Amino acid sequence: MTNPVHLKRVLCVDDNAFVLRILGWYLETRGFVALLYSNGKEALDVIAKGNADAVVLDYHMPEMDGAELAAAIRSLSPTVPMLMFSGDTDIPAPTLALVDSFVQKGQPNGFPAIVDFVDSLRRRQPRKIAERCNARSLARPASRRRAAIA
What are the structural domain ranges in the chain? Predict the structure, then answer.
């Protein structure tokens, strides 16, 4: 049985239902929770609620493309790791600057590269949680910080 402490919720956004199903299956068989959405607007609700540990998104999507979605995610959750998974090889540099990694669809190592990216979060996450807790603690007035420590 998979240890729930190590589960990561991966928000996957792609307008291609077939790709979403494969991506979801691939991630879930490796111990991740895949949250599958076909459009950016629904995905933003998940991000706004803080229910995703990482994001895998397509570039070409109707309504809200990957560039718009990545920018919106960065404004809501600046530290959430994002990987763009697209068949397009001509992604503009400003869009690539918004994401942490890029994997081209159709490449033999595509799905394993996504899992490697998300799996690397397992090693980073405890430190990020500690950083967030310290940041919250330091944001409190000094008198309240001492009370929280005591």
Answer: 4-123
Residue 33 has a CB neighbour count (10 Å cut-off) of: 17
129: helix, strand or coil: helix
- SS3 of residue 73 by DSSP: helix
According to CATH, the topology of domain 4-123 is Rossmann fold (3.40.50)
Distances (CA, A) of 67 to 87, 96, 119, 137: 14, 8, 24, 34
The closest of 29, 20, 6, 30 to 116, measured between CA atoms, is 30
The answer to pTM > 0.85 is no
Q: Which residues contact 124 (CB under 8 A, 6 or more apart)?
A: none
Output 94-98 pairs: Cβ under 8 A, ≥24 positions apart. Answer: 94/67, 95/59, 95/66, 95/67, 95/70, 98/67, 98/70, 98/71, 98/74
3-state secondary structure of 120: helix
Q: What per-residue confidence (pLDDT) applies to 101?
A: 92
- List average pLDDT for each run of 10 residues in the chain, which is 150 residues long: 59 95 93 94 92 94 94 94 92 94 88 86 53 40 39
